[in-house]
Specification:
Oligomer: single chain
Structural class: alpha/beta
Mean pLDDT: 84
Low-confidence stretches: 211-224
Number of strands: 11
Largest sheet: 8 strands, parallel
Shape: globular
Length: about 290
């Protein structure tokens, strides 16, 4: 399968549910599962990921970057569902290309009550995540869409702000709304100006935080993701703890919460067996992908 196949399939199931399954599969913050029920295996082979089902004899090959993008989007949806207060959701996406496209498709599928999405592409119009397929999917679900030229315009009033690509020309994302959730899926630090408005920090997996051997998570960036906010506030919990009820999650309706997706950093990117299995099943149902012998 290629990236276009993945974009066509992520609306066929609930990626957030798959993300929760994978988080629960390693409760002690161990490595992601390389194998699942029935001996199904997931392995990285250069730029591709291969899912092997020894019972059926099938091999499903898909782009590793696409699977990582699906996992990041699924974690974004899970974070929104666990940390946003119930009610109408307005979304801001700061991102471009395939990662942005998949975020939009997964949010429209897995986050309830989304009324509108504003998009800003740091890569410009040529790399916009909004294509005919995305626009059609949003229209079909009754979600309004706005494409803006400035990041601050996209984030204004949004209850869920997702950043998949660093904003270089605009150091500030603008004023975030009270009660909003900010998801950093860049694998790098957000602008220091954002630290002052954050009330609490969550991560996708505390195992990655502890593995860094220090009090704040690290990534490929020298300073780590949003280091100023984390040094000042610490980390409340990870998404597994919130999902299982070990941590209560949001403490105040007006708090702005930051979710750092540590597994989005290049050094921590994880394969997701539960997600790959659902993509494979959806591809078989819709007969997507190109059969290849051997």
């Amino acid at each position: 399968m290629d990236t276009e196949d993945l974009c066509a399939l992520v609306s066929d199931f609930d990626p957030a549910e798959a993300a929760a399954e994978e988080l629960l599969a390693h409760p002690d913050h161990g490595p992601a599962r390389p194998a699942g029920p029935g001996g199904r295996l997931l392995e990285l082979r250069g730029p591709t990921v291969v899912l092997r089902d020894p019972c059926a004899g099938d091999l499903c090959e898909l782009p590793a970057s696409g699977l990582y993008a699906c996992r990041t989007a699924a974690l974004t949806a899970l974070a929104a569902n666990q940390l946003l207060d119930p009610g109408v959701v307005t979304v801001s996406l700061i991102g471009s290309g395939t990662a942005g496209r998949i975020q939009l498709l997964v949010i429209s599928r897995s986050v309830p009550d989304v009324s509108h999405i504003a998009v800003h592409s740091p890569g410009g119009r040529r790399d916009s995540p909004v294509d005919h397929g995305v626009a059609g999917a949003l229209e079909a679900t009754g979600i309004g869409l706005t494409v803006t030229r400035r990041a601050a315009e996209a984030t204004f009033g949004a209850s869920l702000v997702v950043v998949t690509e660093p904003v270089v020309n605009e150091p500030c994302l603008g004023h975030l709304a009270p009660g909003s959730v900010l998801v950093n899926a860049t694998g790098r630090g957000l602008p220091a100006e954002m630290a002052g408005c954050v009330s609490a920090v969550y991560v996708d997996d505390l195992g990655l935080l502890e593995g860094a051997g220090c009090g704040c998570p690290r990534s490929g960036a020298a300073a780590g993701p949003s280091a100023p906010a984390q040094e000042h506030l610490g980390v409340e919990a990870d998404l597994r703890q919130v999902f299982t009820g070990e941590h209560p999650g949001r403490a105040c309706a007006d708090h702005i919460l930051l979710v750092e997706l540590l597994s989005g950093a290049a050094s921590h990117m994880r394969l997701d067996l539960a997600l790959a299995e659902r993509i494979h099943r959806a591809a078989l149902r819709h007969r997507l992908g190109v059969p290849s012998p051997g």
